[in-house]
Task: structure prediction
Amino acid sequence: MWNGSNPYLPGTDLKVWLDGKIVHMNDAKVSVFDHGLLYGDGVFEGIRAYNGKVFQMEAHMRRVYEGAGAICLKIPIGKEEFGKAIYDTLRANNLQNAYIRAVVTRGAGYLGLHPAKTANPSVFIITCALSLYPLELYEKGMPIVTASTIRNHPHALSAQVKSLNYLNNIMAQIEATQAGAVEAVMLNHQGYVAECTGDNIFAVRKGELWTPPASAGILEGVTRAVVLELGRRRRIPVCEKNMTRHDLYVSDECFLTGTGAEIMPITHIDQRQIGCGKIGVMTKQLLEDFWACTRGETDVQV
Ligand code: PXG
Result:
């Protein structure tokens, strides 16, 4: 049990939804025999709530149930109950604007890989206040680097499965930190741009919006789908196409998308300045459109 000594853990009295019950964070315990811990055997979702409403709930639920299904993991509750559990957790913590982490593990069982060695998958939901990027970063943008760690080969496990094994991405994140950046772009096994460690990537080139296709082995992010739709609504030519690092270097604008980051402008990649070195015109339009969605002013179904 956490004894409160780790300064990096949330220090507040959070309530966690664990297998049907709302419990205090100190009582939210999973077994050392849980296959989620022993083998990374499970799936998770990172979701956000804005003004008391869960953003793109359906898309996140679709992804977690599809991902679980793809690894033969039966989520012990239905989609509706899962959604209600998320709202119950937000309410228990009095949170209107929050980060939501939903996790499904194969559950506790004997040692050994075989999934039959576990009987009861476990579900838990953590909600907490967001530590947002400073607002000025959305104007100024940020630098990223290319990691030498490549994205997992999509033929090993589909990137659509948001599995509990993120070690590759963590390795790339360490590379980013060591280079003084917050994010790193990962290439795929063919050398094409895939995505960042927890964000998708877009480039703007001659008025067109480019992003790598699902076949590049990327997670088809919910934010990415919203941004593609917002681009189409603005009649921007949108291309899902394989991109090289060179395409990024010579782009007019570049930005990341993700649940946590929303739309984050990129100013430098591997020390090369992108465009004017601050948020680009198209990025700014899309960010404003995106914020209108999060405020519930426009509806985008993905
Ligand atoms: N690629 C990867 C590899 C991700 O893990 C995204 C893209 C963006 O997808 P969404 O659906 O968020 O637009 C992700 C999302 C966390 C955290 O706590 C990670 C993500 C999302 C939220 C929180 O590290 N990854």
The chain has two domains: 15-128, 135-294. Residues 135-294 form a domain with the D-amino Acid Aminotransferase; Chain A, domain 2 fold (CATH 3.20.10.10).
